[in-house]
Each structure stands twice: as structure tokens, then as C-alpha cells.
Design goal:
Blueprint lengths: L65 E6 L4 H11 L3 E7 L21 H7 L4 E3 L2 H7 L5 E4 L6 H10 L3 E5 L6 H14 L3 E4 L6 H11 L6 E8 L23 H5 L25 H10 L1 H6 L7 E7 L9 E8 L8 E8 L11 H4 L7 E7 L2 E5 L7 E3 L22 H11 L7 H20 L3 E4 L4 E2 L6 H4 L11
Parallel strand pairs: 1-2, 1-4, 2-3, 4-5, 5-6, 7-10
Antiparallel strand pairs: 7-11, 8-9, 8-14, 9-10, 11-12, 12-13, 14-15
Length: 488
């Protein structure tokens, strides 16, 4: 979308713009909550995934800190570790990475020891015990209450499930898992353990998305039947036909441990530390990287649940790597009195080099920029960007007489997802992107990759995690792990 000046309430120009409404819930008296040594009481999910609660068994003192171990401290792990460390009531007591911060050669930016590097993190939290293997950290550290998981996608489930089975709370980066079965397992394990969980789709904690959900549910554009969502990613190589030439593993890096549960490939700087996202063994492509961010509002506001079918078009996809571009169409059934929804995802650049985005008949003159979301309802179109509250509705005449709703979704101070997670641990609540919500959402996201990889329409049985028309999908829905990394 273009850049707009914010106007208060509905207007009559070409656009209708919304004044940002900040809503901070009054701080409630913290409920009792468990630490590591609590009874594994089953957590009951309500009819709405967003009302998930659990029953704690012991009390956190007002001055007690949540002891956190951080798995993965390079890349996104830098900001996750710092963000968690800054959240009031937290304390970083353990750090874990398969690359030695003192001598490895894998930093993407900055001089050794500078902010943005692994060594910078180690220096910032000098009292934290360092581990190379998160299995050892989770099993052996005596004081862990919680972990953050900021690894490549193929480690998300293993680290998170091991922690939850030890009674630890978990903050895990998006997508929640590498495969659909893994996302289901993580949801079930969180429910059994009764721990506080959160997926790292950070904007879910912000005011823009929560206000958008309120407006859409209040009938801003009437009943919604379509959603169109796009990103300019991948910004790393995809469509790769051969594995990169093998390079010497940098001193201080355990490449076998980096590969972990996934098949081992020759080390290359074309894979680590960043381009792994484009390789099926380790990443989930542009869809896995961005959909948990920019598909989130539509999935949440429309309460989409599971689709009945998914089909995809793509260009350049190989057995090794994700496609250069894809268009994925999800079909969601009617939900109660809500009409069926078609959701279309666009990513990458087309073969002629143009950005892949919705057609102009849907964009209606809007600049697609790097990413965005459009909802199409009976009363018009809503153009949403997750980073701000400058949105557009067309045509504006449909808003005459619209009853602007009061904020109803709790707000997080500063839109800080780490604060939301730590506050929930200490206060006996759940963040709104907890695994009861983000697990099924991640299943939906990753189902798109299943359609891309099989190059056929998938008829989906969500309850049984089965592509009913494609038995060949089973190894992709639940893949095998290397010896020593088996999980059940």
C-alpha cells in the first residue's frame, strides 16, 4: 500500500483511514503458576483456540525471575535472546549454539564480539552457562524454567518438545515446526504439559493486528469470502538443482550437530548461516518464513480452522530446494454461519522477473510493496499491513454508519512478544499466539508446501493428518529422523 496520513474515523475520500487506538488492559492480579516442578495437569482448550488456558499448581513470588535458556543465539536468536533478557522478570541462565562463539567464522555481520554476533550475546550475558547441544542443556541444567528456540526450522520441534516434556515453558520461532506432524505434536505436548507457549510471529502481539481483527469481526467489510496475501521473498537462493560445492567446516562449528535430525549434506556457506531456508531438508521456503507473519490476521480474524483442499502452481521447484515463485490456493469450508473462504498466497518473482502479487483487479491501484494482505468482503476490500495501522478500505461509501467497535482483545505494552510470554508465565495466563493457536495455524501454512512439492491438489483430512488423494504425501507430512534423533 501507499503511505497515508492518519485520519480519525471514517472519511469520504478515496480511502478510509483509521486512527490508531491504543488499548492496554489493566494489569490483573497474577494468578498462581507453576515452575518446573508442577503436576502435569491437562490443559483444556475452549471452543475458541484463542481462549486456551491451563491450570497452574504453585505460586511465583513477585520478585522471582523466570530462568531462561536460549537455544540458538545467532541470526534471529540474537534478538530473541536480547528481547527475552530485557523482559521484566526474566533471567538468561543458559545459552546454546552449535557454533563456538569464540572462534567460529559464521557471523553474518559485525566484527567478532560486536552486537549482532554470538560472541556479543555471550559477553552480554556472562553469567549464563554455555552449551553446544540443547539436549544436554535441557536435560542437565538444574535451574531452567523456560527456553527460547531460535534455530533453523528442522530443530524447532525437537528442542521444544524436549523442553515441554521437562515441564519448561517455550517460546519458539516461526514456523512452529518443519513438518505438519511436528506442529500437531507440539500442540499436543503443550496441552499435556500445561506450560506457557508462544510462537515467534512477533506482530501477533502488536496493536495493528489486534485492532484489525476487531474491525473485521465487527463487519468492517461484511462477510469475507477471499483473502489474498503476498511476499517478495525468497531473498535467498531457491530453485537450486544441485547441492553446493563442499567447503571446509569452520573451526568451532559442529556441522553434524547443526544438521541434527535432518539428513547430513556437505557443509557450504551457501547453506549456513542463512540460506538454509531455501533447502527442503532444513527450511520451509518463503511460505514457511513469512506466512506465519502475514497470513496471521486473516487466519485469526476469520477463524479459518483447517482447509479442505490446497493446490499450488510454482516455478523452479526441485527435490533439493523450494520454488522461485509459488501461488497456493487454500479452500476453507463454511464455519457455522460464516461463508467459505478462498485464501490465495503469492511469493517470489515470476519467470519474467516481475514481483509476484495479486492482479491489479484485486490490488485496485494499491502498491503491493514487499508484502501485504487483502480481505475481500461483501462490503468492500480491506488492505492490511502488519507493521502499522494505516490501512485502506475500498469503496469508502460502504463504511457510512459503521459502528466502530471498542477494543476487545487484550493489548501488550509496546507490542512486546517477549514481555507477553514472561508476563504470562508469571501471571498464570497464555499469550495469544500460544501453541493451541499457532500449532494448527502452522499446520495450515506448511500444508501449502505439501501441495507445492507434490504438484497436485491436496484433499485434506485435518483430523487424521492425511492427504486423502495422495498417499505419497505421508513421508512429507511426517518424515523420518536420523538415528539418535527419533521422536514419538
Amino acid at each position: 500500500m501507499g503511505e497515508f496520513s492518519v485520519a480519525r474515523g471514517p472519511g469520504r475520500g478515496q480511502y478510509c483511514l483509521f486512527n490508531r487506538i491504543t488499548y492496554l488492559m489493566k494489569k490483573k492480579t497474577p494468578a498462581t503458576i507453576s515452575r518446573r516442578k508442577f503436576v502435569k495437569t491437562g490443559a483444556a482448550a475452549s471452543a475458541s483456540a484463542f481462549a486456551f488456558q491451563y491450570v497452574p499448581s504453585t505460586v511465583w513470588g513477585a520478585n522471582e525471575r523466570v530462568n531462561v535458556g536460549c537455544v540458538g543465539i545467532g541470526g534471529k536468536g540474537n534478538s530473541d535472546t536480547r528481547g527475552t533478557g530485557k523482559a521484566e522478570g526474566s533471567q538468561i541462565v543458559a545459552l546454546c549454539d552449535c557454533a563456538d562463539p569464540n572462534n567460529h567464522l559464521l557471523e553474518r555481520k559485525g566484527e567478532p564480539g560486536a552486537q549482532g554476533t554470538r560472541l556479543g550475546i555471550v559477553k552480554e550475558f556472562p553469567e549464563a552457562e554455555f552449551y553446544f547441544d540443547y539436549r544436554e542443556m535441557i536435560a542437565q541444567h538444574p535451574d531452567l524454567d523456560a527456553v527460547t528456540v531460535s534455530t533453523p526450522d528442522h530443530h524447532h520441534m525437537h528442542a521444544s518438545v524436549l523442553a515441554m516434556r521437562k515441564g519448561m515453558h517455550v517460546y519458539c520461532q516461526k514456523p512452529l515446526s518443519h513438518s505438519i506432524w511436528e506442529a500437531r505434536l507440539m500442540t499436543e505436548e503443550a496441552r499435556k504439559a500445561g506450560v506457557v507457549t508462544q510462537m515467534g510471529n512477533q506482530a501477533h502481539a502488536g496493536d495493528p493486528i489486534r485492532r484489525a481483527v476487531e474491525l473485521v469481526r465487527a463487519g468492517l467489510i461484511g462477510e469475507v469470502g477471499e483473502a489474498h496475501i503476498w511476499t517478495n521473498r525468497p531473498i535467498w537462493p531457491q530453485g537450486v538443482e544441485e547441492w553446493p560445492q563442499e567447503e571446509e567446516v569452520p573451526k568451532g562449528m559442529n556441522w553434524d550437530l547443526w544438521c541434527g535430525p535432518a539428513p547430513v549434506c556437505p557443509y557450504s556457506t551457501e547453506i549456513a548461516p542463512f540460506n538454509w531456508r531455501g533447502y527442503w531438508n532444513y527450511g520451509t521456503g518463503a511460505l514457511g518464513d513469512m506466512a506465519c507473519h502475514i497470513m496471521d490476521m486473516a487466519y485469526w480474524a476469520l477463524d479459518l480452522g483447517a482447509p479442505t483442499s490446497v493446490e499450488a502452481e510454482s516455478g523452479g521447484m526441485t527435490n533439493i530446494s523450494g520454488p522461485n515463485w509459488s501461488k497456493i490456493t487454500y479452500k476453507f469450508p463454511a464455519r457455522g454461519d460464516k461463508r467459505p473462504v478462498k485464501l490465495v498466497w503469492y511469493d517470489g518473482k515470476l519467470d519474467d522477473g516481475t514481483e509476484h502479487a495479486p492482479p491489479q483487479g484485486i490490488l485496485r491501484g494499491e502498491n503491493p510493496k514487499e508484502f501485504g494482505c487483502i480481505l475481500r468482503g461483501k462490503g468492500g476490500q480491506f488492505f492490511f499491513h502488519r507493521a502499522n495501522n494505516n490501512w485502506a478500505v475500498k469503496p469508502t461509501a460502504n463504511l457510512d454508519g459503521f459502528d466502530w467497535p471498542e477494543p476487545s482483545i487484550p493489548r501488550v505494552e509496546g507490542g512486546d512478544p517477549y514481555k507477553e510470554w514472561i508476563d504470562a508465565i508469571k501471571g498464570g495466563t497464555q499469550p495469544l499466539s500460544n501453541f493451541e493457536q499457532s500449532g494448527p495455524f502452522s499446520e495450515v501454512v506448511l500444508l501449502g508446501n505439501l501441495a507445492v512439492r507434490l504438484d497436485k491438489k491436496i484433499e485434506w483430512d485435518s483430523e487424521n493428518l492425511k492427504a486423502t488423494n495422495a498417499p505419497e504425501a505421508d513421508p512429507l507430512i511426517r518424515r523420518e529422523y536420523r538415528k539418535g534423533w527419533e521422536m514419538s
